[in-house]
Each structure stands twice: as C-alpha cells, then as structure tokens.
Amino acid sequence: MSVGTAFHPVTAPLNRKQQWREWSGYFASSSYADGHDIEYNAIREAAALIDVSPLFKYLVGGPDAQRLVDRVITRDATKLTAGRVFYTPWCDEHGKVIDDGTIHGLDDGTFRWTAADPQLRWLRMNSAGLDVTIDDVTEETAAVALQGPQSRAVLETATGASFADLGYFRRRAATLKVGRKQIALDVSRTGYTGDLGYELWIDAEHATALWDALWAAGQDHAIRPAGMLALDVARLEAGLILLEVDYTSARHAMNPEQNYSPGEIGLGRLVTFDKSDFVGRLALEREARAGGPARRLVGLELDWYGIEGLFSNQGLPPAISPVVDRSPRPVFVGGRQVGRTTSIGWSPILKQSIALASVPPSLEAAGSKVDVEWTVEGRRGRVHAAVVELPFLDLERKRA
Length: 400
Fold this sequence. Notes:
Blueprint: H1 8-11, E1 19-23, E2 26-31, H2 37-45, E3 47-51, E4 56-61, H3 65-72, E5 85-91, E6 97-105, E7 111-115, H4 120-125, E8 133-136, E9 141-147, H5 151-159, E10 171-178, E11 181-188, E12 197-203, H6 207-217, E13 223-225, H7 228-237, H8 281-289, E14 296-302, H9 304-312, E15 329-333, E16 336-347, E17 352-359, E18 369-376, E19 379-388
Parallel strand pairs: 3-13
Antiparallel strand pairs: 1-2, 3-9, 4-7, 4-8, 5-6, 6-7, 9-12, 10-11, 11-12, 14-17, 14-19, 15-16, 15-18, 16-17, 18-19
Helix pairs in contact: 2-7, 5-6
C-alpha cells in the first residue's frame, strides 16, 4: 500500500482533484491543477516545486567509499570530489545498464547515491573486500526539486544566501532558518527538467518546514507545485531518459532485446575506459571495438501536416494529447520496421510533436528520414519524421 512522502501533509491539500499515482511505494501527484499545462508553464516561465522524495537514496561511506563508486559506475569516480555531482549509468557484467542516477560528493568524504530502482543489494554485492558502509536513507531523507527560471531567486529568498556561484552539477551545504533554529540542508544544481533548477535534500522531519519556506519565498515569483505529468513533458523536451520507458533495466529484462548498453540509450559519452576496472568494462570494450552498439537513441520531430492529414482523412480536426505517450510505436523506413519510439509527446514551447526513438546506427545522423506509426480512431497511418540533435530544448540558463 502506498504511503505519503514527508511532504504529503503540505502537498495533499494542494492536489485539488486528488490525482495520485504510485512511485516506489509512495503517493506522487500526477497533477495538482485541473490540467498539467499550468504546472509545465511554471517550470518553463516561473518556478515549480516537485516532490522527488520517492527516489532511492543511499549513503556510501568508509575508507574505500570512492573505490566502491569507481568499481560500479562507468565514469571516473576519482574526479568526484566534494561539491561535485555525477550523472551516470551503472551496468551488469554484460555491459547492460541496470539503472542511471546521480552521485553527490559530500563534504565529509561520503557519497549520496540516488536511483530510480532499489540498489542496496547490488552495491553491497560489489563492495566485497572493501572497507565501506552503505546505508539506505530513502525514508529519512526528503527531496524536493525547485525548477524554473525563477528558482534561484526563490532559493535565495528562502535561505538568505546567494547561489549565484553554484555551478551546474555542483552541490553545497546550506541552512534554513526555522523559528530560532538553523536547519541543515544540501543543495545541488540538478534536476530533471532541462531548465535552471535545484534539488534540495533535507532530513524528513524538516520537510514541511522546507516546503513552507520555499512556498512563501515563491509567492512573488508565481511558484506552483508540479506533478508527474508536467515533469514528463519537460524531461522529454530535455531529451532525458526514463527507466522502464526509454530502456529496460538489465535486472528486469526478459530477453536480449530488452537489454541496453549505455551507448544504446544516449549515455555512451559517460563511459570512460581511462580509469580503473568497473563492472561491465570488458563487454563495453568489446562493443566499442565492434563499432558501437546496434541501436542508438535519437530525437525525432514529426511532420505536423502528416498528423493533420490523418485526422482530415476521417473528417476530424487534428488533436494531440498533452500527455507524453510512453507506449512504443513502430518506426519505419519504406515498408520495413527499423525501430520504435519510446516516448512521444507535444512540446508546448517548441510547438512541435517530438519523440525519443531507438533506431539502427545508419539512421543516427541528424536529417535522417523515417516514418512513425500514428493511429486515429483505430486506423493506423504513418507520419513522416526527421532525426534531430538532442536535446530538443537546450536552455542556456540551465548551465549559466
């Protein structure tokens, strides 16, 4: 049975229609407002608060903590010093991705590890022979994403500190004044929206105080709570992948087709061979020597006039769902299926139907032409699409 996160006492009254979904055993809001478009607009034009507490969180410590991190992830963990944050995949011994997430270098030499799926057993299995401690701090650590162009102003008002010098994928400790007390929290310049944003990590007992402080600070900045539907649109525009949607965890794969290497899901750039040994290295080296993976993740822009034509053929006005479709659709070249879309949706800011798709390497180059299946009133048709560079939306402010 699902339970509320530490923020639930303050988020539940804001959820007008009580639209909840399950996320790792917790209630997560699908949409707070009648429609999620207003929440999406807050992410892109103002400031939004997103409860991300259901993420699995682990604290890795001890003399060999960095060695364990380096042993498991595909990036060079010796560069993950205090104050830095890595986004990275980690693989099984066959070089297939188990999960992806962020790892934060904390000031005391420990590491905060976040993941979409449970990883405690995996981390402990790979810690053999190392002097490390691995603690599951999921329930005791609350997390909220503060995203949008006004997020920095809101954060600085709430904390009374400047964050102008906190760089992209960096973190630092901060405090929040609650009454006469100063409450410790950690701030990372990270997020899942492709916009300027921060993620705030705090002891669960102080979660509601943090939300209230951010909410009060955001009233002059049109702040809103945002749910999973709005977040899904933003992450698609940013070209960010989702576990069990854009790829299947190697832990859950039921056949070889459901196994993905980092290079097959757009994360090949995060594989470093110029480092110590890591799980899956030999398999990934063999893949590289063979010319790379047999599938590549690409972005597609779908032809609007093709979509309109399919509706017109049935005497209907064109209609596109504002919700991201996570079900796969066939991708064709000529009469042959060559791949599939994984996430497809409408970008409000780009005024374009966009999709992430898995295709052969021959179609990876920008400008490659394909067709995507599109069904109108039960009748299947095809829409022309072109491969484009990812991300679809690349906002300078997310890094500046």
